[in-house]
Amino acid sequence: MASTLIAIVAGVGPGTGASVARKFAAAYPVVLLARKPENYENLAKEINQSGGKAIGISTDISDSASVKNAIDVIKKEFGSDVGAAAAIFNASGGFLRTPFLGLPEDVFKTSIAVSATGGFIFSQATLPLLLKGVELKSAHPPSLIFTGATASVKANAQMASFATGKWALRALSQSLAKEFGPQGVHVSHAIIDGVIDIPRTKEWLKDAGPDAKLSADGIANDYWNLHTQPRTNFTWEIDLRPAVEKW
Amino acid sequence: MASTLIAIVAGVGPGTGASVARKFAAAYPVVLLARKPENYENLAKEINQSGGKAIGISTDISDSASVKNAIDVIKKEFGSDVGAAAAIFNASGGFLRTPFLGLPEDVFKTSIAVSATGGFIFSQATLPLLLKGVELKSAHPPSLIFTGATASVKANAQMASFATGKWALRALSQSLAKEFGPQGVHVSHAIIDGVIDIPRTKEWLKDAGPDAKLSADGIANDYWNLHTQPRTNFTWEIDLRPAVEKW
Amino acid sequence: MASTLIAIVAGVGPGTGASVARKFAAAYPVVLLARKPENYENLAKEINQSGGKAIGISTDISDSASVKNAIDVIKKEFGSDVGAAAAIFNASGGFLRTPFLGLPEDVFKTSIAVSATGGFIFSQATLPLLLKGVELKSAHPPSLIFTGATASVKANAQMASFATGKWALRALSQSLAKEFGPQGVHVSHAIIDGVIDIPRTKEWLKDAGPDAKLSADGIANDYWNLHTQPRTNFTWEIDLRPAVEKW
Amino acid sequence: MASTLIAIVAGVGPGTGASVARKFAAAYPVVLLARKPENYENLAKEINQSGGKAIGISTDISDSASVKNAIDVIKKEFGSDVGAAAAIFNASGGFLRTPFLGLPEDVFKTSIAVSATGGFIFSQATLPLLLKGVELKSAHPPSLIFTGATASVKANAQMASFATGKWALRALSQSLAKEFGPQGVHVSHAIIDGVIDIPRTKEWLKDAGPDAKLSADGIANDYWNLHTQPRTNFTWEIDLRPAVEKW
């Protein structure tokens, strides 16, 4: 039996994660990772009902035992010789804009645990599957894509928690891009510089016009474009922002 | 009569320029600018014969009178209410790796004349057409794309000439992205970090494997992907390099 | 009785930390923090015997209880109204150049614990003393200085552990510079881009000439120069490397 | 007769240039370059009357013949075996905040002529003297220092003219730092990120408090600190801004 190529999305919620999952589900079975099942259950159902294939696995991305368990579930489901065509790290945490001296230690540690340690654990767990994807000659180079933010490149006042984790994640992605590019895995980092248009942000930026927020489907499309770049033309980093954004 | 939307490519040669022209010619009449007619004549013929529409105009991009003349020719050909869907600046000059104290003044000035002044003149000439494209509600946001290089972000020893011009061009593109994004024009900058696979580089990197050089058609594809991003999701900058490239 | 102004150095060892402590000891009583007493005992003795004043406190910089204890010891020694003229974060950990798939989780976590969490804990503990230094009108603006590395701005292949922590620390320092600059505290980050000349590196770069390694005393001098900048002229970041270094 | 070591300052005016000249005049005879004699005459007189030595030479920094003439005057004055301990490029031009489509071509070209071409010409003319300074074993490594601005690292909307020149100059300085560091010349770039307190800016930022503007003497002091760094500890780049500056 032929080996399967899957896509794995960590940090599935109502925004980028869901759009990315839908986009990649058109080409690959997708695995949805989130801590809370309510974050992936409906999405998995939707994908499965519309002709795709999706499974959700409750996973704490900052806990290597939990991620190891997810990989075990994946191998049970798709075979022990499963390869990955894409792994997308979309998790984040520890966002709090606050004067530094009032920043709770646990918020700071959450940012680090998700963005830095979580990125590390996710990468160590998925890279063997991505390298397997290279071996299986996936149609497009297996891709490891990290979702960044404005705070990945600018550490503003009162943003020490989120920025610290996001800079760490960007460093991780750059190091991996340099190490695994020559091995055929395409590692990318996307700087999402603006507000994403999701239910939670419905009331934000209402006066800034209809195009003031990033489209999550648009982000998913850009991730797909990164994924389909050939080995000769890898992009490590893109930035994405609404046309009207000040930067 | 309906207004026409065109694509303008400056710096047409056997590599990126030609690939970009072919790619955009599938959607728009294209205008090919180069100093020497032999750089665009065959390409224009090829595009016209395969069902597209192309005209070439001999233009010195660093000379505002020459570029003004090109705009006049464009308006005569496509109507005075012509708009641009895309303008791509792919010109460069003054490349010379040499100890600084032996760098001829005219080489340095050529780099500056093409990359800095040329970028400025091309942008001032095409932005009114791109803004006209916004007005004409082009299917994709009118795009002004600049071709950069490794030397756009790293100024290595003995590379003062080329790097100086390329950093200047990157600054120009960033300032324009911030000013014209809110007006609906998508300004991008692409860092081409590696050798492009063209006839002139045929013998280069032969030992580095079949994927060691950038594909010009791949670059054209990435430019097209930039062009088709919606107003909600503009990328200012991408980097592009072969998977095996050290960076 | 007048309040005292002290300097606190975290991460005292045989290199930068000791040189910085000696330099600042010429102006202020210094507090030396390191996990192992053998890292500060001789240095404290040396400073005390040569007319300065130094105390060492065994401290785990990544543990907020341990750092809180250090602050208690400081207040007991110098008075509860003690202010800080300088706090220098020179700790680091988790350095390991290794293929990513063989990088032990605990090494990665050490890098993060020291550089990210440690930087956070040290800053939350010392900033109140530095703000007290502003209030006490210290002769030079109270300074919080972070020691970075090449890996703070470049995440090379096989360097994911160290680079991730160092990028995080740089983000922290930038956010703090923006928040606390207007409050009178000078926050800086120094990119040490090269090998420091200490006993442990005696055999390194022997063929590269006498000036191929950074002088720790030179670094201390640069930190002092940062410290003595007036409020009108704050530097956030400097890079430091031997003249012969390739970069 | 012993060879002389001088300092050369290009772009002498009432601000940074004058402060730098005074600072370096305490250690070296200084050569003041500016287009208009009224920009250096009083300063030269002041330095000569207070025990230093200064000569002014009317020079168009963007014109290689004019700069060659300045070098001839220098050699006539100080001997053909004169060396330079420092060369400081403080010239700038083409500052105009304006919508891009209204930016006059001559303003853009002035920015480029001064910052890019002027930087090139000044460097080619002074580096032989700086290398001579290395040979003469100057007390501090001969230094070539470039004055940058906020616009050297950020190209804001409507700032295309100034930013383009300043990015070009930064590229030049980086390339020269990499090439001439190993030869013993210390090349630096200073990002002056704020308003400098000079007669022309007297009325600016009056509500922002007494420390809202950079001190020109402070900048001169920082340049001197760069100059006195030993070969083991070279800084390429520093940023400088008032404590209260938003960035």
Automatic annotation (TrEMBL), chains A, B, C, D:
Transmembrane segments: none
Matches recorded under InterPro entries: NAD(P)-bd_dom_sf, SDR_fam
Domain of life: Eukaryota
Annotated protein name in UniProt: NAD(P)-binding protein
UniProt-listed PANTHER family: OXIDOREDUCTASE, SHORT CHAIN DEHYDROGENASE/REDUCTASE FAMILY (AFU_ORTHOLOGUE AFUA_5G14000), OXIDOREDUCTASE, SHORT CHAIN DEHYDROGENASE_REDUCTASE FAMILY (AFU_ORTHOLOGUE AFUA_5G14000)
Matches recorded under Gene3D superfamilies: NAD(P)-binding Rossmann-like Domain
